[in-house]
Each structure stands twice: as C-alpha cells, then as structure tokens.
Recover the amino acids of this structure.
C-alpha cells in the first residue's frame, strides 16, 4: 500500500542489493579483477545445482559481500550460501557481475602483487608466486616446510627424532670465533641412547641450514613449541618438476627414492674424507662410538674389515672340511654323503683306472630313501 512502512526484512534485502552493486561497480572503475572462489566452494556450488558452464561459477560472492560491507540480520558478515543463485538479489545483479567478469577478469585474491625474485637459473626476474587461493597458499606452505626439513637434514645430519624435536628457538646465538668468523649452531634433543626424554645437544651448521631454521620458525604457528616441518617429498618433487618449478627456473629432481637415512650417510661420507673428518662426523652425527661412524662413512672401515676376516675364516674352514671329506671318501672308510659308494673300473691299458660314484644297492623289500 502506498505510504505503508517497509518491513525490516524488505529493507535489509534492498540495502544489501545496493551494496553488492556498489562493490561490483568499484571493480569496474578501478579495473581490479574480481576474486576467484576457493576450490571447495566451487565444488559446493556444483553440488547445489550450479551449471558447470555458468560464467559466475568461480566468482567469490563472499568476497563481494565483504567488500560491500553487507551484514546479516544478526549483525555479522553476510556470507552468501551456495544456493544464493536462486535469490532475487543475485538474479538482479547477475548481468552486472557478468559484465565485470568480461571487463576486469577473475583471478585469485592472494599474490596479485607478489615481489619479483631472480630465477634459480639466473634468467630474468619473475614474481615469487602467481595469484593463488587460500588452498593454494596452504599447499605452498607445505612445500616450503618440506624443503626446510630436507635442507636442515642434509646439512646437519640430524636424525628424524631430532628434527621433530627442534624447538621454536632452535637458533642459538652466533658464536664469534675471530675477525669475520662466527659459528652457527642449532639445538635439539638427542633421544637415541640418551635415556627417557633425551638430552639437549647442539649441532654446528653452515649459514644456509641456520637461515632455513629461521624460515621454518617464521612459518610456524603462533605460540608453537616446535617447528612445523612436513615430509611430503613426492608432492614437492611434483611441484618442482611441474609448471611452477619451471617458471621459477628450478632444476628438475630425479625420480629416485630419497629419505633421511640417505642424507645422513651422504653427509658422513663428505665429512670423513677430510683431515680429521671421521671424528668430526662422529660428533656431528651424535654417534656413541667412532666404529659406528666408520660403518657410515668408510666402506673399508673397521666393520667392513671384521666382516672380511670372518668371511675369510669361514672360507678356510669350509675348504678344510671339503678336503677331509674327499680324503675320507677316497679311502672308503666312511661313505660320503647320502648313501654313495665307490668302485674301481679298469680301463684300457693305455689309460689309468678311474673311480666313479654309484648309488649303494638297497636290500630287497626296503624303500629307497629320497
């Protein structure tokens, strides 16, 4: 009726529609692309009956509502559900949103103005990341944390149990050793052979491992007691060998098995080949005995020599037993082996007699042993 007071629900819908329109026109004026929706949100829209060919399928209506400042009846942020496409407000805004998609485009929200970095192969500068969604950022963080654990493990020789015990303050203060010389150290707990709970120890590392621990610390959750390290090497290798790794100029990784034990033994080999390196590897790998380090680093170490001596003694003993058995069989004092006997055959006068082995005859009525 003319002059009738508009209901609160009707007034809320009108204001929200106007706010949506204002947010969309702001994109048309500034040329800023609309936000692309998350993968899980697109999947939910499809489950609610959206057409896969709908040009607005990947438009983030939640981002538009946030930019417009629209609020729900409870006063909280307005979050359009997947069934919002059937709402009259969305139907009225569809032509304008489609125009914005054609004019300014549609890209993920995060990383639109990423800083430039030099490619790993030195061939120019590229953004450190392409525009990505929140889910893409989460996967990128997993790749970075996986790279952190590989770098620290390869350059420090830590065991798996020692890596997971790295505290948030694992970077010890730099220790000056003279003009222009400092020592970089990481601390963690050694659990193997140290009793319940382990004991604190430190590892001397090169600056790259020390800085990597700082990166892992910066990426850890607020208030976390330990570094958030991931072990998704296969996913990291697929990412490096894929389009994103090629864009950054990263060398491809071979399709080979890589685990922490391989990295630990490789470091032991590199250290042991230097003067005094065997004892240094023993300290770095936290071994209880240098003999264990020799087994890691020197194929011809004490353990290998012991095995060679044992093998030689076994060979000598087996050869002696063979000679004794052969001599016994020639004198026919003890039948050699499973019921064998000997007999002599006379050959032609021009050839000496020879001995052949024949099965011993069994008494009649007795089963033949198999």
């Amino acid at each position: 009726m003319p002059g009738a007071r508009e209901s609160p629900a009707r007034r809320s819908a009108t204001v929200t529609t106007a706010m949506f329109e204002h947010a969309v026109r702001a994109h048309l004026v500034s040329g800023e692309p609309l936000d692309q929706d998350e993968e899980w949100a697109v999947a939910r829209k499809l489950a609610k009956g959206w057409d896969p060919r709908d040009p607005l399928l990947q438009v983030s209506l939640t981002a538009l509502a946030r930019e417009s400042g629209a609020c729900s009846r409870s006063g909280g942020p307005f979050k359009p559900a997947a069934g919002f496409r059937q709402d009259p407000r969305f139907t009225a805004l569809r032509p304008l949103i489609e125009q914005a998609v054609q004019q300014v485009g549609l890209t993920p929200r995060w990383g639109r103005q990423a800083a430039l970095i030099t490619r790993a192969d030195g061939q120019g500068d590229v953004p450190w990341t392409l525009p990505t969604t929140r889910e893409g950022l989460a996967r990128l963080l997993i790749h970075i944390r996986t790279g952190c654990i590989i770098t620290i493990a390869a350059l420090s020789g830590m065991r798996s149990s020692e890596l997971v015990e790295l505290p948030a303050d694992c970077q010890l203060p730099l220790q000056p050793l003279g003009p222009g010389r400092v020592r970089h150290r990481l601390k963690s707990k050694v659990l193997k052979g140290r009793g319940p709970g382990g004991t604190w120890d430190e590892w001397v590392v090169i600056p790259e491992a020390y800085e990597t621990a700082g990166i892992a610390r910066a990426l850890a959750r607020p208030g976390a007691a330990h570094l958030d390290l991931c072990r998704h090497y296969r996913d990291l290798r697929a990412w490096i060998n894929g389009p994103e790794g090629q864009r950054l100029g990263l060398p491809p990784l071979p399709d080979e098995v890589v685990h922490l034990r391989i990295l630990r033994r490789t470091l032991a080999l590199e250290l042991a080949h230097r003067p005094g390196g065997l004892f240094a590897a023993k300290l770095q790998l936290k071994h209880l005995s240098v003999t264990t380090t020799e087994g890691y680093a020197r194929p011809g170490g004490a353990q290998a020599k012991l095995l060679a001596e044992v093998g030689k003694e076994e060979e000598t003993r087996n050869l002696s037993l063979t000679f004794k058995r052969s001599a016994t069989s020639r004198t026919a004092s003890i039948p050699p082996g499973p019921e064998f006997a000997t007999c002599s055959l006379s050959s032609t006068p021009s050839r000496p007699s020879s001995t052949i082995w024949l099965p011993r005859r069994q008494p009649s009525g007795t089963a033949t042993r198999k």
Observations:
- The chain is about 45% helix and 10% strand.
- Residues 8-107 form one domain.
- Residues 340 and 359 are 5 Å apart (CA to CA).
